[in-house]
Write a structure and sequence with these properties.
- The chain contains eleven helices and no strands.
- By secondary structure, it is mostly helical.
- It has a domain of 36 residues.
- Helix 5 packs across helix 6.
- The longest helix is centred in the N-terminal third of the chain and has 24 residues.
- It binds heme C (HEC) (5 copies).
- One heme C binds next to helix 2, helix 3 and helix 8.
Length: 179
Amino acid sequence: MEERKLAWWQRPIVRIGIAIGLLVILGGAVGGVYYTQTPPEQPIAFPHSTHVGIGAQCLYCHPGAATGPVAGLPPTELCWGCHQQIQRQTPELDKLASFARSNEQIPWVPVAEEPDFVHFNHRPHIAAGLNCEDCHGDVGNMQVAEPQAGQNMGWCLSCHQEMAPEQWTRLSDCSLCHY
Ligand code: HEC
Ligand code: HEC
Ligand code: HEC
Ligand code: HEC
Ligand code: HEC
């Protein structure tokens, strides 16, 4: 009788090794999202403070927050609508001009992001009267959008418990946020 030979990747020790490797990689990725507070480098240094300062509303650039799950980022055309009329030239505005001329969207790097297995929806939060600042900090005074620390499951749940105690059963159900 011939001994059954396992391919190298089927050997238990190799599989355990791969599993541990994946855990380390995933752990690192998750940690990277939650524990970094330094804003990422953006393709254009977009100053929130300047734009909110001239009176642009959050929902003017992020209209999806009032109507659905995703707030959305403004398309290049929205930026260009104003900036093609502004004569000012700076290195950052030159970058904007070249995205606009080549009809490209700007590849912004996410700042506020939950992992894929969490379902967040902006609409019910805005409908319940919350302000953007309650969750994102004082963006209107930030030069660049900064990630907020500690926005984990405990953060979601403690606000649900506080804001809507009569709905706690529904708002703490695992399947509300994980499905
Ligand atoms: C409502 C009009 C308006 C819109 C929309 C708008 N901007 Fe501006 N932006 C301005 C004004 C006004 C300034 C200030 C210009 C000044 O200081 O002379 C400014 C300043 C800037 C600056 C700083 C320039 C510098 O280097 O000092 C950058 C960068 C910029 N905008 C990029 C953008 C991008 C990217 C978008 C789209 C996401 C955008 N803007 C959308 C009006 C607008
Ligand atoms: C003129 C357009 C404009 C206005 C007005 C504006 N934003 Fe933004 N916002 C942007 C752009 C462009 C980005 C992507 C670049 C960045 O992250 O800095 C962004 C990014 C963000 C992010 C991070 C998004 C991500 O991808 O993780 C948050 C949160 C945010 N904005 C909240 C706000 C709030 C709150 C206000 C009102 C106080 C506001 N914004 C007003 C254009 C705007
Ligand atoms: C109850 C807390 C909460 C409130 C209030 C809130 N946000 Fe968010 N926002 C989040 C969370 C959590 C994420 C990450 C969602 C994800 O990754 O699925 C996010 C992501 C974003 C993003 C990037 C991803 C996307 O959805 O486009 C933008 C832009 C944003 N928010 C803008 C706003 C603006 C503008 C307001 C106010 C009109 C607002 N948010 C109100 C919690 C909130
Ligand atoms: C600052 C307070 C606050 C925070 C933080 C918060 N929520 Fe909520 N959430 C609410 C309120 C208020 C409601 C609306 C209750 C109602 O239906 O009237 C709600 C409702 C919801 C709903 C139910 C939507 C529906 O269909 O009825 C979901 C899903 C949800 N939140 C997910 C999250 C997640 C995920 C997070 C964290 C990433 C989070 N929330 C953080 C206050 C908050
Ligand atoms: C209101 C939204 C919400 C509800 C309800 C919720 N979770 Fe979560 N959960 C999150 C968010 C946001 C994260 C990711 C952020 C974090 O904790 O680092 C998460 C992460 C997790 C993780 C990954 C481990 C971790 O800590 O990162 C597990 C496992 C989990 N949830 C299980 C559950 C179970 C089981 C329930 C029901 C008892 C539940 N969740 C209810 C929002 C929710």
